[in-house]
Amino acid sequence: MTAFALDEPIDRGPGLPRPGKLLRGAADSIPPSGLVLLGIFSVQLGAGFAKELFATLPPSAVVFLRIAAGALIMGAVARPRLRGLSWRDWAVGAGFGLTLAVMNLTFYEALARLPMGIAVAIEFLGPLGVAVAASRRRIDLVWVGLAAIGVLLLAPWGESASVSWVGIGFAMVAGACWAAYILLSAAAGRRFPGTSGLSFAMIVSALVILPVGVTTGGADLLQPELLLIGLGVGLLSSVIPYSLELQALRRMPKHVFGILMSLEPAVAALIGVLLLSEILHVQQWAAIICIVAASLGSTRTRER
């Protein structure tokens, strides 16, 4: 889950520190497609490490660690300016943050019940739905049908009988929130300079998820090793991919970015196999391929 629509430059203000310049120069030396792929792998690697934490902490507590770490870092990098905001700005920022909190919470609940590749594939129906809804072409019905086939193949029957209906439900809610996230991130990008809208939303999200995370995590949240892993998850899942994608969007067309992002469910399945030993059946791989193909087809149709 990444910054799909926030493609404005990061507002770091005057006096950019030299380490920042060095990092930016290093990023400029990497092709934009490479930056996007690195961002995708970073997000899914963060999700994999987060899932390993579920043996110690409930998903809601892990979500809190991730969002809190991301909010602290993003708030320091792009501090949101609160003066002069209208009530509409506050409403958009608060709605953005609430959506971000629910999206991450439901996705992690899905991740606790489903293999990574399946959870991400179902969640990916959210941005696919936004893309299709914005088009008036009949060919998009083909991509809707292909995505529907993928969902049917993932349903808990046959080889997928062990897949949880509750997990699928959580993933679908996360996908709906991702669709709302895309729309709200575009609105926030118009009302907040740079990525300060994202920082504002992450702070709101951390405050929203705080009571749930602290209640379910309890004293375990104070363990130094868990805090360190949570910081790593926040970096891998939020800060690093957001930064890489924003840098890539400055140097590549949006439709190419969308095509590359369509690979995310397949990368999630691969990380699940390599990091978590989540072996998928042929039927489940076929479902993921259908959803990836639907996203690719929709993106290329919009390009034409």
From TrEMBL:
* UniProt keyword DNA-binding, yes or no: no
Of which family is this protein a member?
Answer: Belongs to the EamA transporter family.
Q: Indicate where this protein is primarily found.
A: membrane
Q: Which InterPro entries match?
A: AA-Vitamin_Transporters, EamA_dom, EmrE-like
Cellular compartments annotated: Membrane
- Mark the transmembrane ranges: 56-78, 90-108, 114-134, 141-158, 164-184, 196-214, 226-244, 256-276, 282-299
* EamA domain span: 166-297
Q: Any idea what this protein is called?
A: DMT family transporter
